[in-house]
Design a protein that fits this description.
Strand content: 15-25%
Low-confidence stretches: 1-17
Radius of gyration: 25 Å
Oligomer: single chain
Shape: flat
CATH class of the largest domain: Alpha Beta
CATH superfamily of the largest domain: 2-enoyl-CoA Hydratase, Chain A, domain 1
CATH topology of the largest domain: 2-enoyl-CoA Hydratase, Chain A, domain 1
Number of domains: 4
Distance between the termini: 67 Å
Structural class: alpha+beta
Number of strands: 23
Helix content: 25-40%
Mean pLDDT: 94
CATH architecture of the largest domain: Alpha-Beta Complex
Strand order of the largest sheet: 11-12-13-18-19-23
Length: 458
């Protein structure tokens, strides 16, 4: 009975406070849906991995459903769920700014709650200082609105998130599990670090408390440098979005020449321009050239597709033109980019010392390209958790109402064709943070990296 009353209250709260505008006509809603469906069919590099019958039947069903949506938020939620069917981290639909600005994730009036996935559990990592006794950091959210957290995320959160890998989907869904509009309420069952179970109802509204507890450190620079023990140098490369990182790295070369061991931290690096990463890597590896990712995109030749409709599959074995036509017809004809080697020449002295590259779930895109370039270097060891597992070249386009969408157009693999998109780059040494590490302020990846290096530079 309690759950029924709470759901009635929840529905009232959403209707009273969580309204967003309905700015799109039925025609515009169908056009936006169709535009995205069309661009995926024409450009999505992984279309061959999609269940086409399910994809198309979902599109047909959505034609009516999108016209029945009561506002822009509900409409774009449907489109985001449609997009998530593709299971690709470089294929997304973003809410238009007027909707995104109304969404709340961590603010609940008198409460501010930040949640992360640690050891497959929804762990509260930060709160506002005035509530750190009520919800101590390290608390686990066991239930949301009467459902187990796992079931709640599976039903209401994960289906709307585009991700190439299961581990990143779990991370993102946990972080977004309490995202909603102002006025939206959640009944939480929470287990404190001391084992005590409490229930709490929180409602999205503006919060005046800005400070957080604990005040976790955040990267303040593209690059961070520090010395550790035993002449081990630590360099965090936090993004490849800005070419300034290359000059920042080169400014530290005089210091780095003194290092007997090196830690490169890519855990916060979500990508950017792969060339910026390569321009740093060239200082750290021997030789003059290196191979990067092998790349492929779809190739459309309309007339061949028309011919392919008349080709029998068995006829393609001995006739190259028939095969080309048939592959066009079934949307599996590709163009392979030349995978020419990249120069690693530099007029600076190179730093060839035992090197640990620390990676994690947020190591993505161009940062993964960095790892592909470095693959096989004998003095390199990767350590941490599997990477983001998504890269490629997205095609961006606008949808009605100011929303932006993108579709991945390029498949990248190791030079030998080994896949990492959809899997992540698996480090040589798996080290992942535990709840105990979080509670005790321990960085297990960094500690293990230093330990491994100490053994290598004795």
């Amino acid at each position: 009975m309690r759950q029924i009353y709470f759901l009635i209250y929840l529905l009232f709260s959403i209707n009273a406070f969580g309204q967003t505008s309905n700015t799109l006509s039925s025609t515009e809603k169908v056009y936006g849906l169709s535009k995205f469906w069309q661009e995926v069919n024409y450009n999505f590099i992984y279309l061959s991995k999609v269940d086409r019958k399910k994809w198309d039947s979902t599109y047909v069903a959505l034609i009516e459903k999108v016209q029945q949506t009561k506002d822009d938020y509900e409409y774009y939620r449907l489109l985001k769920r449609f997009c998530a069917m593709l299971k690709d981290g470089h294929t997304n639909i973003d809410f238009p700014s007027q909707v995104q600005s109304k969404l709340m994730k961590t603010t609940f009036g008198e409460y501010r709650i930040f949640v992360e996935n640690i050891q497959h559990k929804a762990i509260v990592t930060q709160v506002n200082p005035s509530k750190e006794k009520v919800i101590p950091p390290g608390s686990e959210i066991l239930e949301v609105n009467g459902q187990s957290t796992r079931e709640y995320i599976k039903q209401f959160v994960a289906p709307y998130i585009s991700s190439s890998t299961g581990h990143v989907l779990e991370d993102m869904a946990t972080q977004d599990m309490l995202q909603g509009l102002e006025g939206e309420s959640y009944l939480l069952k929470i287990k404190r670090p001391n084992g005590e179970i409490v229930e709490l109802t929180v409602t999205h509204s503006r919060s005046s408390e800005i400070d957080l507890y604990p005040g976790l450190s955040k990267p303040t620079s593209l690059l961070e440098f520090k010395w550790m023990e035993n002449k081990i140098a630590y360099v965090a490369l936090n993004s490849f979005q800005d070419q300034a990182i290359d000059s920042m790295f080169e400014a530290h070369l005089p210091e780095l020449y003194k290092a007997e061991g090196l830690i490169i931290d890519l855990r916060r690096n979500g990508g950017g321009n792969g060339q910026y990463g390569l321009d740093i890597l060239k200082h750290l590896i021997p030789g003059k050239k290196v191979l990067g990712a092998k790349s492929q995109t779809r190739n459309h030749i309309a007339t061949y597709k028309a011919w392919g409709e008349m080709v029998n599959p068995q006829d393609t074995a001995s006739n190259a033109e028939y095969k080309k036509a048939y592959l066009n017809y079934i949307d599996k004809y590709y163009f392979d980019f030349p995978n020419s080697s990249k120069s690693t020449k530099t007029h600076h002295k190179k730093i060839i010392v035992p090197t640990i590259v620390v990676v994690g779930h947020h190591t993505a895109s161009a940062a993964e390209d960095f790892l592909i370039y470095a693959n096989g270097q004998r003095h390199f060891t990767t350590l941490g958790a599997p990477t983001f597992g998504s890269t490629g070249q997205p095609f961006y386009f606008m949808l009605p109402g100011g929303a932006q969408a993108r579709v991945c157009t390029k498949r990248d693999t190791y030079p030998n064709g080994k896949e990492f998109v959809g899997v992540g780059i698996i480090p040589d040494l798996i080290v992942e943070r535990t709840i105990s590490d979080f509670l005790n302020g321990i960085d297990p990846e960094l500690e293990k990296a230093a330990q491994v290096l100490r053994g290598k530079i004795k």
